[in-house]
Amino acid sequence: MSEFTAELVGTFLLILLGGGVCANVNLKKTCGHDSGWIVITAGWGLAVAMAIYAVVNFSGAHINPAVTLGLASIGGLPWSDVPKYVVAQFLGAILGATTVWLAYLPHWEVTEDPATKLGVFSNAPAIRKPFANLLCEIIGTFVLVFGVLAIFSPDALTPVQENLGGTDESKGLQQEWAFGLKPLLVGLLVFSIGLSLGGPTGYAINPARDLGPRIAHALLPIHGKGKSDWGYAWIPVIGPCIGGVLGALTYKALWQ
Question: Are 237 and 210 in contact (CB under 8 A)?
Answer without folding.
Answer: yes
